[in-house]
Amino acid sequence: MKILYTRDRIAARVTEMGAEITEFYRGCDLTVVALMTGGLYFAADLTRAIKLSSLKLDSVAIASYQDDRSSEKLNFRSHLKLDPTGRDILIVDEVLDTGITLRGVRDFLLAHGANRVRSAVMVEKDILRPKRGLESADWVGFYTGPHYLVGYGLDSEELYRNLPYIATLDN
């Protein structure tokens, strides 16, 4: 295991992102939607760094799977408590990999009446994404290569999520 981003570096970047997002949404009511389970750690830290008194927090649990045609599908395991209609929503997740989950959630929220939907991720992998995936997040903590990452919400078979840093399991 090789540490890529330390606890201190993550904390500093989250603070910077929180300031940027605060400025962008100043004067607006913002709803943050955390993608569970991986986005939990980042969403908790980021929402504390966003200095808006009107911020609301919700979450959704999603799993992706391959169907019979090898097409990735999304399975909503839990749903929003808040109605997205008319809301400015910031989707928060730990990583942008294929972009299929983020795009699927964004499209779902827009189809259900959200006003504006943007995204923030802790790590965006510099890889070629499928056409049906979200190309890039609006706010990104760090850019990295196609490493297999763990820590700060990122897991390997549900292990390592609780590490306070982000590391690679690549050799």
Automatic annotation (TrEMBL):
Residues 5-131 form the Phosphoribosyltransferase domain. InterPro entries: HGPRT, PRTase-like, PRTase_dom. The keyword Phosphoprotein does not apply. One of its GO terms (cellular component) is cytosol. SUPFAM superfamilies: PRTase-like (SSF53271). One of its GO terms (molecular function) is hypoxanthine phosphoribosyltransferase activity. Its EC number is 2.4.2.8. It holds the Pfam family Pribosyltran. The keyword Ribosomal protein does not apply. One of its GO terms (biological process) is IMP salvage. Keywords: Glycosyltransferase, Transferase. This is Hypoxanthine-guanine phosphoribosyltransferase. It comes from bioreactor metagenome. The gene is hpt_30.
